[in-house]
Amino acid sequence: MKKTLLSLLLLFPLLLQAQLHDNFSDGNLTHNPTWAGDTGSFVVNGQGQLQSHGPEAIGTTLQLVTPANTGGSMVWEFWAGLQLETSSGNYADIYLLSDTEDLKGGKANGYFVRLGGTPDEVSLFRKEAGKSPVYVIDGQEKTIAGKNNVLRVRVRRSADDLWELEVDVSGTGQNYVSQGKAADATFKQGSFFGLLLRYSSANNKSFYFDDFRISQAGALTLVEARPLGAQELALRFNRPLQSADAQNPAHYSLNGSMQPSAATQPAPEHVQLHFAQPFQPGTNHIRITHLTDVEGNSLPGPLEHSFTYTPAAEAPGYHELLITEVMADENPPVGLPAQEYIELYNPTGKLLSLKGIRLADATSGTTLPDVQLQPQEYAVVVPSAQKDSFAVFGKVIGVGNFPGLNNDGELLQLRRPDGRLIHALPYSDAWYKDPRKQAGGWSLEMVDVHNPCGGVENWQASTDPRGGTPAQANAVATSNPDTTPPALIAAIVQAPDLLLLRFSERLDSAQAANAASYSLSPEIAISRVTVQGPLFREVLLRLAAPLQEQQLYTLTAGRISDCAGNLSQQPLQAAVALPAVPGPGDVVINEVLFNPLPGGVDFVELVNRSDKYLDLHNWQLANTSGDSVASRRTISTQPYVLGPGQYVVLTSDPGKVKSHYPAAVQEAMLQMASLPAYPDAAGTVLVLLPDQRPADRLDYDEKMHFALLDDRNGISLERIRLEGPSTAANFHSAATTVLATPGYRNSQRQQAEGVAQVFEVKPQVFSPDGDGYEDFTTINYSTGKSGFVANITVFDAQGREVRKLVRNELLASNGFFRWDGLKEDGAKAGMGYYLFYIELFDLSGKKRAYKEEVVVAGR
C-alpha cells in the first residue's frame, strides 16, 4: 500500500504537467503556455485564433513547440482550419508528443497527426529519429479535400497503449467519427507538443488553430466551454455525467457570482447553462463544482475555465463610431510615417461592423472594408499601400481612394451604408492651439472620447513625441465633459416665412425638432421645424404666415438641450425682423477713427437713421483712388440686420477698440478681416449697397478736428446731426473726456433744431474747450426754399472782425452752420459777447441782413 501511494505521489507532478490548455484568449504566445520556435511567423488574430503568418516562399517549413510532459493514458484535442487545398507540399503535422523541440531536423521521436498531404486525410503517424514516418492509424481519404477545411481532432491513448483517432468535420466537437484504432507502444512518454507546417508561397497565412488541450484520460474534466449566444453556454466533458449533478444550477457560477437560471443536459457528456444576463464581451470565467460521471468519479476539486464571448457585430449608430485623431499635415514628419491618417474608435460595449461605412470629406470619400472593431478598440485608416507601415502601432484599415485631408481644416463625415450619419467632425487648424505643431508633423487628437460633440474645446495637438498615436489611446486623453448648455447666437430671416436659428453648439436633434419649443411674439405659428445636419447647430423654422416689415418680433426657444444633454434652464431669445430694401442715405457714417492710438486700429461706425430693418449682408466699405472706388471690403458675408437707430462699429480688431475705449459697446462690434486704408491726413470713407450704389460718403480731412487739440491721436470725428449731410460742417472732434464713442450716442450729437425765424443761434452760450458739452454753437436757418446765398461774419463786442465764417454759401431750404470759437488766425476767441452778421441774398439778388448774438464762455 505504501509503495502504491509513493508511486502515485511521484507521478502526481507529471500528471499536473501533462495538463495543457491554450485557446489564445490572452492574445499572445509568450506565456501560459510559452511557445518557442518560429514565433515571429505566427500571430493571434482578431478571432482569438493562432494563425500562420510566415514568409511567402515555396517549400517553407514552420514549427511552434511548447513543453508538455505526456505519458500513460492521455487525450489530445484541438480545432483546426486549413484555408487551402492540401497536397504533398501543403499540410500540417500536429506532434502529440516528441522527445525534442526540434521538429524540423528529422531527429524527433514521437507521434503526430497529419492534416492533409496527398491523400487529403487525417491520420496518426509514428516518427522515429532519422527515419520516415509510418502510419499508426490511416484515416479516411478526402476527409479535407476542399479549400475551406474546418475540423476538430481528438486522439485517445489508453493505459495499455491502444490509440484511437476521431475527427469532427463540423468543427463543433459534437459529431466525432472514428478513423480507427491501433496499438503502438514504441514511445511511452514525450516532453514537447508542437506544430510543423509545410506550405507553398500562396498559403503562408492559411493555417488556423485553436483550443489545444491535453488531459489525463482517467480524470473527469471539462473539454470545452462554448457560448451559443449572449446568455447560453454549452459545456462538454470527457465523460458522461450523472444527470442530477449536471442539471443543478448551484454547481456553476459565472464570473465569480452569477449562477445560471437553468442547466440542461442535451447529451450525456453535454450541459447547457442558461443565464438571465448576457456574457461580458471578451473573456469570461465559469466555475464548476460537485459533478460526478456515470461511473461515480467526481471532480477532484473546483474546475475553472475561461471562454471568450464575441457578440455579433452590429452597424454603428449615431456617435457609436468616432473619429478621434486626424493627421492632416504629415510633413515634416516627427516620428511617424509621412502619411495622412484618420483614427477611429469604438466607444461602445458592442462589436461593430465597419463594412460599407462611408468616410468622406466635401469632395471625395472611401468605403471601409469588412472589418470589425472590438469594444473600446482603436483603428487607424490609411491608404492600402501604407498599411504595413502602420501595422506596428495597432489595428490598421487599408482603403483605396483615401480622402486627401486639407491642412487648414474641413468637414469629415462617417455614414452608414443607408446614409445615416454616424459622426461629423469639422476640424480646423485653429484646433492645434500650438503654432509650432500647426506647421506639420503633428496630429489633432480628441481629448475626451466621451464628449464627441465637443469642438475646439475638446481637441488639441498630440503631445506624443512621435507626433501622434495612431490606433492607440490619445496622448492628450483626459476627462473634459461638456457642462455648458447651448446659446442662441442668431435668428436670421431667410424668407418672409422662413427663419434660421444658429446655436453655439450641437443640439439634441430629436428634441430640437419639436415645434412646441419655439414661439414668436407678436404671435405667428410655427408650421415645421428642420434641424440641419450634419452638425445640428442650425434649425429652420417654417412660419404659418409671413413676417411683416417694420415689425420687430421676439423669437423664444425653450428647453433646448445640446447633444451632451445640457439643458438651457432659461428660454433663449433673439430679436427678429424682416429686412426691407435699402436705399442711399438710410444708413450713414456716424463716426470715424482714422488716427488711432499707438497699437490701435481704425474703426467706422454706421447708424441706421431710417425706420426700416436693413440687412448689411454683402454691403461694402471702401475708399477712393482718384475718382474711382477702391479697396472694397465686404462688411458681412452673413446676414446682419441693423434696426432703426442701431449702431454698428466696423473694425478689424474689436478687442483693441474695447481696450482703448472701455465704454465701447461690445455687442455693436462687427469684425472685418481688414478695413480699407484711411490715411491720417485725409481720405474718403465710402459705404456701398449690395448693388454698388453709394449708401453714404464722407470726405474727411485732419483739419476737421478741433484746431486747439494738443494730440488728435485716438480722437474720432463724430456726426453732429443725424439727419444732416455727411459733410465737414456736420462732423466734429469727439469730446476729449471720451476720445471716441464706438457703439453708443456721439458725445457731440445734437438734435435738429426747430427754427422759428430765418436764423437762430443755439446754444447762445458755448465753451469751446473739447469737454463734449456745448463745444460749439450752430447758426440754424430755414428759408422755406433752396437757392439763397449767405455770408456770415463774426465780430467781437468792439465791432472788430473776428472771422469770415461763411462766404457765398449756397443754402438748402434748411440747415445749419457751426462756429467752434476759433478766430481767423486759428486762435481761440476770448470770453465775451460776439455778433454774427448775416447777409442773405435771394434769387433776384435782393439782400437782407440779420444780426445774432452769442457768448463764448470758459472756466
Write the layout of secondary structure elements.
Elements: H1 2-18, E1 20-22, E2 36-37, E3 42-44, E4 50-52, E5 60-71, E6 74-82, E7 91-98, E8 110-116, E9 121-127, E10 134-137, E11 149-157, E12 162-168, E13 177-183, E14 189-199, E15 207-216, E16 222-227, E17 232-237, H2 243-246, E18 252-254, E19 262-267, E20 270-274, E21 282-288, E22 303-309, E23 322-327, E24 341-345, E25 352-353, E26 358-360, E27 365-367, E28 372-373, E29 378-383, H3 387-390, E30 396-399, E31 409-415, E32 421-428, H4 435-438, E33 444-446, E34 459-461, E35 488-495, E36 498-503, H5 509-512, E37 518-521, E38 526-532, E39 538-543, E40 552-557, E41 572-577, E42 587-593, E43 603-608, E44 614-615, E45 620-625, E46 628-634, E47 641-642, E48 647-651, H6 654-660, E49 669-671, E50 682-688, E51 694-701, E52 717-719, E53 731-733, E54 759-762, E55 765-766, E56 777-782, E57 789-796, E58 801-810, E59 814-819, E60 832-841, E61 847-856
Parallel strand pairs: 29-30, 48-49, 55-61
Antiparallel strand pairs: 1-15, 2-5, 3-4, 4-15, 5-14, 6-11, 6-15, 7-8, 7-14, 8-9, 9-10, 11-12, 12-13, 16-17, 17-20, 18-21, 19-20, 21-22, 23-24, 23-33, 24-29, 25-28, 26-27, 26-31, 31-32, 33-34, 35-36, 36-39, 37-40, 38-39, 40-41, 42-43, 42-52, 43-48, 44-47, 45-46, 45-50, 50-51, 52-53, 54-56, ...
